[in-house]
Amino acid sequence: MLKVQNLYLCYPGQSEPIFQNLTFELKEGELLWLTGPNGCGKTSLLNCISGIIPQRIKAEFRGDIILNDLDLNPIPINERFRYLAYQMSDPDNQIFFPRVEKELSFALENAGLTIKEMKERIIRATEDFGLQDFWETEPGKLSLGQKKLLVLAFCSAQDTPLYLLDEPTSALSGESILKVEKWLKNLLSNGKMVIMVEHNPDLGSLATQILDLSK
Q: Which residues contact 163 (CB under 8 A, 6 or more apart)?
């Protein structure tokens, strides 16, 4: 279970907080859909849970973020990949390596998986998103949609309890959107928790909770 309690966030120079006393719970197998206009704090909330705020983006921040009885706040951002996977809206912010296979294996190597385990996860993730023929490809040569699928495959391979998704289907074709929808259904059926920002209403049926941050 994820428990977010009394979250407060205010950026430097702002007179009003983005949110205060924000509280919600998410159980295994549930998807929380974040809604509201641009600037209401949807991505900011994902950044708080991932640790980007306040560890990378400085802001006045307080509150409790508890994942399966583990307090995430003191955990360094470079260690949170063990507990959550985060797909940012711009895939170029998450792509660093010269080959697709290396992009997918980096976090798995740090997690201490065996070569056999890493290969199995990478095969499964690339097949889920139609990237099985791109192992040796330089990620920078992929299309925007393929880059987005690569980041989703990276998240899938991590196999964490919690997934943070920021507009996962933007820039995707109809066929690719169906792949994402199938993947999300599989995550939820396996007891994973998902928090998602998404403008495609066709995925709305997957939401078990809706949080409107404009209120």
A: 84, 85, 86, 87, 155, 187, 192, 193, 194, 195
If 0-12 CB within 10 Å is exposed, 13-18 middle and 19+ buried, where does residue 194 land?
buried
Beta strand ranges found along 69-148 (DSSP E): 70-71, 84-87
Q: What are phi and psi of 169, to 5 degrees?
A: -105, 0
- 3 state SS of 151: helix
Q: Is the dihedral of CA 89, 95, 101, 106 positive or negative?
A: negative
Location of structure tokens 């990237």: 131
Tokens of 193: 């928790």
pTM of the predicted model, to two decimals? 0.95
Q: What is the pLDDT of residues 47-88, one digit of tens each?
A: 999 999 999 999 999 999 999 999 999 999 989 989 999 999
Structure tokens at 106: 């980096």
